[in-house]
Structures are given as structure tokens and as C-alpha cells.
Amino acid sequence: MVYLTTQLNELFGQIEPAFIDFAKKAETNASQARFFEAIDQVLSRREEIERAFRESIEQGFRSFVQGKPINYPDTPAEESSEIELEMVDNDALEKHIAIQSMISKTQSNCYQELYALGKRMAVLRGGMKLPDYDIPACPAHTATAFQQASDILDVDKQILLIIYFLFGKFVLGDAATIYKNLNDKLIEEGIFPNLKLSSIIPPSGGQTETTDEDNSLPTEPAQTAPLNERPEISSPAAGQSPGAGSNVALGEELFKSIHDLLTLRRAADPAFSNHPEFAPGGNVTQLRQPTAIVQVIEQIQPRSEADYLPQPESDGGIPQSIELDTRLIQKVRKTLESERSKILHDLNKDTIPTADLDTIELVGMLFEQVLNEEGLANITKALISHLHTPYLKVAILDRSFITDEGHIARKLLNLMVDAGKLWIDEEDLRRGIYYPTQEIVKTILSDFKNDLSIFDEMYYKLESQVGDLESRAKVLEERNQEAAKGRERLESARQQAKQVINDMTKGRSLHPVLERFLNHAWLDRMILMLLRDPDIEKSKEWSSALVVVDSLVKVIDARHNPKAREWLIKNKETLIQHIKSGLDSLGNYHHPDSNALFKLLDSVVADKPVPAPAEKKPEEVVEVSKPIIKPITSEAKTPQEQPVKEEPSETELQMRLKLREIKFGTWFELIDEDNKLRRLKLSWFSPITHKYMFVDRFGIQAYITPADELAKMLSAGKASIIKSTGIPFVSKALKTIHAILQKSIGMSTAG
Hints:
mainly alpha, five-stranded antiparallel β-sheet
């Protein structure tokens, strides 16, 4: 209940900025006024909505305990007979569809947690299978509870749909946290502790999400995100601007330099001593034309990808993890070499112009760089390598592929490499861009003859698919950031409230019932107050909460202090009323604690024996968030075994300073506890706990670690910052090839 209330607080905190934003975009003054009026209408009835929502959630848990199904209202269609079905209120139907869409998305996102929770809750119901919608606080229960609670608002459909959207984002957006905590609690109690989830796969219907939650708001502008680290995408084509011309000029210069190096190396190679362009008086008229070269390449070009690459499963399942070792890459290298050798043999290398020999050799070296590219999965290297012969044809037909950064075939190759690094996961190929990329490779292999327009089509197709992934990842990352900030605020409020109670009870021996009440029920009350209003400590409401703590502490003295007992007798009912009023915002969850306290007060007033206080137990450690990848540390030790904390080294201190300057969005390589290298993006830093949060390529939280621990990992080489040059792959590869040729020529000259 505390968690849901915290998330509702986030929702209502977004009402004003969201509606103001819509008001700014409104086309008429009347529409604009409607949004401003809605702010007051919603916020003025906030308490009623929250109370009704909590009561519905509590009723769901009560129904479960009583062995009854959760009661849901009828859908608009169910309320009408078949004859009246065509007359169903469109507004009611739209609201119903919005709620159902929200439920479906949450069920899909939390499928494993809900599956496990359903199994464990079924154990509590005697082993009977529990329908998904009868799990208390499940997406259907939570969303419907809010729908019923918000029905008290006298606003039009559009306003209500916006509120539903905010609920989906700020409450259900991180619902997995609720279900994980509920599962953890049941596991602690021994309920199905060894349930295995590794083989649980969501039904195909749960994997059909193609849009983010913005689609529930048709009037809201769609969010788009630029493609990461792809400056070449915005590079203009040749002749479009001075910048484009300079890119081509640099490309020409680099190509000329590479050509000179290749010519120098070939001139010293006895295998080319009979080539007309190197032999004195050679007959250059016998040299082949580009069309003849392309025809031979066309015959060699494969028509489909190799059988060692995985295919999409027909049943829509997720392929097993695929591990491709260096033997595969060696096989790909041999295939590339074989294709080049066959071209030179079938054409007779002495009949190929040196410019085309350069192109054949250069494209081959370019695809060698694909195989050497760091951060690119082996399966992606193998897939892209199939384009060796199509790109040979491109380079022979249009030499500007080598010299112009804006060439469409060059942009496609750049995009495939960049997208492959970021959006292909070898352990789950269906999650990213592997199969769309595979389709593009198939299309080029089967359809490309000599018309370069196919590269335009494939480029914009892949760019669109990557853009969709980036948009989704951005939404998920924002959700994870909001969830982390919410947990941070919750933990901060918890510590603050706990400190206040500890200070007020310091040095006092409290009765177990009183201690339980203060550190459980009343602690939650103070936490909510701090969450709702950062300035609550200046208010009378906060002072009243502290008075309750102070008054309850006096109960200890009432047995032996006549004045304290007289005070308690006189003020008991008022004190009880204050407590009941304060706990009302938490629902019925803390009734056992408050009822036990009231019995204790009655016994003190009646001067009946009160059980001696039990020995105080150590406080339970509340862990708000756990890293999904554990920090690389030694195994946990008991307090007696804990070593003395070591002073950080000079290197670690320098790393801490360096981390302060690192921007969000920076990519890291981290070695996890299984000694596996992972690429993760820095997403958020907590100024309270001084912890960094990382997300994976899909925007999902993957790692949380203290700043000191991250600095230590960087110093020990267990983590590193990935530095992006911002140079497109082909341009970077050509520079590398140039350097390799310079070195090889220098070595042979020295020999």
C-alpha cells in the first residue's frame, strides 16, 4: 500500500505539467481553458480518488483471503444485450479499451513475475489454479481499481484518457517491483521457493507490442529519438552542400593514397609481372570492362545466407542461445578469400584494370575489418559478410562508394554495423534487430543486380526499425529512471522518519506492542507524509504526528507516574482518535498494530498488569533495491569477519573524480560475477545513496553499484568506459586499411 501510494503521488505530481503542456498545444481557447479547469478538478478530488483506490485494492486481498473471486464491473459490451450492442456508448468503450490495453501491456512486461505469483498464491488457496485476474494487485485488479476510483471525476473522455495514460506510466510502469516483492515475501515464507522460470515464455499474444504508451494519447506528439552515434546518417549526399563536397574530397584523397600504396605493392609482386599496366609495352586494350567484371561477380554471389546462421522459428518461439566461436569467423574469412580468388581466376587477373584490382582488394579488406570490429557479435559479423560480393558489384559500378561518405550503400553498411553492435543480442536474437537485418541481407542477395535503388529501400527500412527500438528503449529507460528515483525518495523518507522516531525514543525501554506500532504503522504514516510534501516538517500535520509519538512514549511512565497516568486517562480517547485519523490514509493494513496498541492503553488506564517488555530485537534491514548484476566483491562475511575498510588508492581517487565528469548515456564494459563481459549504458546517479544505475541496450535496468565500487572496478580493469570516435565504420575502416598498407610497404621496403 505504501508503494502504490508512492506511485500515485508521482502520478498526481505530473497532472499539472502534463495538462499545461496539452493546454499549450490546444487549438482553441475553449479547449485550452478545459485543460486548466481539469487541473483543479483532478487535484481537488485527489484524496477521494486515493481513498477509493486503496479500498478497492484492500477489498481484492480480502476476497482472496475469503476464497472468493475479485469483483470486477461489467464491460460496456457486457452491460448491453445483443440488440443494444450497436448503441454502446463510444466514450465508455474507448475508456474500456484504454484500460484493457494498459492491462495487456503490463501483463506482457511482468509475465514471469505474475506467473510465479499465480503459482505461489494458488498454494495458499489449497493448490487450486488461480485465474490471472484473481491475483490481488494484478494488472487487471490495479487498473480497474483506479478506473472505478477516477469515475468520481466530472471530466470529459479526453481528460480521463490522459489520466489513465499517466497511471499506466507512473503506477503500472514499474509494477514488476510489486510482484517481485510479493514473490520474495512468499519465498521467505517457504511458498514454492524453488520455482524455475528460465523456461517460461510469454504467449505470442504478449509479444505483439509494437508501440509505446504514447499511442493511448492520440493528441500527444509522438516521441522520436535520434539514432545513437551515427553522424553519417545526417551527412548530405555529394553536391548538396559544401560539407558534402569536403567529405568527398577527403575520400578521394584517402582513396588515392590507398591506390598508390596498392600499386606500389603490386609492382613489387612477381605475380603481376605480366599485367599490361606493369609490363613494358603491355597491351591495355585487352583489359576487361566493368560490366564484364560485374557479370563474373554475379555468378559467384550467393543467393541466400549460409546454413550455419539461425532462422526464425515458425512457431514464434525464442531461439536458444547461440555461441559462435573463432572457428566460425575463420570459416567466414576463408569464404571471403575464396570469393576473391575465384573472381581473379575466372577473369584472369592480368585482364583486370589495376583500378578494379584495387577495388576488389579494398572491398575484401573492408569486410576483413567487419570481422575485426570490436563490440560486434560474431553472428552479426557472419551475417554482414554475406554482402561481400554485392558490395564488390557496387564498388565496381560506382567508385564513389569508396570516396563519398553520403553514398547510400555505404550508409547502409555503416548502419548495419552500428545497429549490430547495439541491437543484436546473441543470447536472444528475437529481442533486437538480427532477423530484420537478416531479411535485408536476403533481399540484397536475391534481388540486387545493378540497380542501387535497392540500397535506399533497405537503408530506410532498417533505419525505421532501429528508430522504433530506440524509442522503446528510451521509454523503458525513462520508466526505470522514474522507478529508481521513486525508490530513492521512498528510502530517503524511510530513513528520515526512522531517525525522528529513534531520536524521540532514545534511551527508553519500550513495550513490544508500542515498539511495533511506532516502527511499523506510525513509521509508514510519517513516510507517506514526507513523500507527499517535501515541506511537511513545517506544517501542523507533522507536529501532530510528533505529538502522537511523544504522547505514546509517556505511556511507559504512566504506571509509576501519577501525573502521566492522569494525563493518559484524560487524553486517551483524543489520542486514539488522532491515531485512527492518521492511519486512515493507509487503509486497514495496520489495524492489527493499532488494535494491539489500544488494548495496551486500556490496560494501563485500568491499572491492569502489563507484560514485561520483551528483549529488543535488532532492526530488520530494508533493502529497497538490489543490483540485477551483483558488484564484483568477495562473498558476504559476518560482522566479526568483516575486514577493516581499506583506504582508496590514488588511482581509485582519480577514478572517482573522473566519474563525476562522465555524462549520462556513456557506455561501459563491465565484468559481472560470472566473469562475463557486458556492455551497459550509464543512465542515472543517485545524489542520496551515491549509486550509479546502468541499463542494457533495451533500456532495462541491469546494474546498480556504489560510486566507490565502480571506481574500484575501473581501477582493477573489471570495468572500462567505451569511447566512441563518432567516425562512421567505413571511414574508420579505410583509415585502418591505409595504415596497414603503409606499414606493410614500409616493412617490404626495409627488407
